[in-house]
Request: fold
Amino acid sequence: MTACANYPGGELPTNVHLLAQTPQLRALMTMIRDTNTNRNDFIFYSDRIIRLLVEEGLNYLPLVEQQIETPTGLPYHGVAFQGKICGVPIIRAGEAMEKGLRECCKGVRIGKILIQRNEETAQPELYYSKLPSDIAERYVLLLDPMLATGGSAIKAIEVLLETGVHEDRIVFLNLLAVPDGIDAVLARFPKLRIVTADVDPGLNEKKFIVPGLGDFGDRYFGSS
Ligand code: URA
Reply:
C-alpha cells in the first residue's frame, strides 16, 4: 500500500501506483501546474513526467529470466520483457503521451479511442476506435493524462474488454488523478492497474481537477 494524503484513509488501493514523490518529480509537477508556465515549457516538463510514468508502467509487465554473455566473456543472469504491448491513447489529451511511449518502446503498436460526452445524456460515448487486430493478446498501456470523473476511462476500458483484452493486462497511465475517479474506475474494473504521478483531492463544479493544472489538452496542444 502506498501512503497518499489526498486519498481517503491515507493509503491508495494496492493496484494504484503513485510515482515516487522525489524532489525532481515535485518540481516538474509544480512547473506544469503553474498557470504562468508557457506552452513550450508545459510540453517539455509534461514530457519528462510522461517518460517517468511509462518507465514505471513497464514495471508491471511480465519478465522472463534470460542469461546473456557480457563482453568479458562471462554469463549474466538477467531478464527480458515477455509479451507484446500496445499503447492506446484516449483522444485527444492522451495523444500527448504517445511520444513518451514510443521513446521507451521502439516500434510499439498504437491504437486510438475517441470518447465524447453526449450533450443530452451527459454520458460518455464511443465515437471512434482503431485497435490492432491482435490486441487481445497484448498488454495495453492506456494513456490519458487526467483521471477526473473516470467516465471516459471506463468507456475506453469497456471497448478494450469487448475486443478481448484481459482486464489484468491493462495499465492505465495518468499524470493526475482524484480519489473519486480512481474509485469509479476500480469499482468497475478491480483487476486494472493505475499508475499516476500525483493525486489531488477532488473536482470543482465544472469537473476540473483541483487544484489541478487546468485543461491538459488545451495547454499541451495550444488550443485554448
Ligand atoms: N481534464 C483536464 O484536462 N483537466 C481536468 O482538470 C480534468 C479533466
